[in-house]
Amino acid sequence: MKFLYISASNMVSVKSKESTSYKICEIAKNVSQNKCVDVKYSILELKNHHLLPCIGCGKCWNSHRCVLDDDFNDIYTQVIDCDLLLIVSPHYAPIPAKLAALLEKMEQITFLHWGSDNSYRSEVYGKPTGVISHGGGEDWALKSYKFMVNDTIANALDTIQLKLIPLNDEWNTGISLPVHKASFSSVSIFPTQEYDWEKLTQLISDYIDVLIQNI
After folding, report:
1. Which of 82, 81, 80, 71 is nearest to 45 (CA)?
2. Which pTM value belongs to this model?
3. 20 partner at 20 to 30 Å CA-CA among 76, 180, 195, 200?
4. Under CATH, which number does the domain 2-213 receive?
5. End-to-end C-alpha distance for the chain, whole angstroms
6. How far is CA 202 from CA 31, 130, 151, 180, 192, in A?
7. Domain segments of the chain: what residues?
């Protein structure tokens, strides 16, 4: 089996592992490794790929691939080949641009064929998929992240025919993770965000349990 974890952060830093999305992917990968053996685990960072927006040319009709975007095609192939997909996204406006580009192209490929044949099944039909969102707010902000990030991604996944796995009835489009504390200073234009990684690891582990059960 193959598990694919997508870090949707656009954050550019000297060390790629510094983005929160990547750290969450690493935790999810480590948790999964403790639960499943004989699995190939991969983390894919969208910030390392030059994704182009869909221009609606329709040339993906025959090939089911984008004729203009090899980076997209590489990622799409990895999504097709995996047995479990996990998307980790920060709250931007509302989601990162490269994640939007990835989703819109997968949507276009699926929708064009489904529109002419409602029995059409995409190459990723029914693939178990999880979504984890996060932002700069504490627990009070989680429901807004669910609405803006998780639910937005969920709408796209439905068109693409990926199977979004809920945590429970309340968190039916994945989970959201808070910061422990966020503060600003004169040292940097960016806020300092502190995380309770032990707490977040447990939340991630609980969701991974549910995802694995749906493989």
Report:
1. 71
2. 0.95
3. 76
4. 3.40.50.360
5. 10
6. 9, 16, 23, 14, 23
7. 2-213
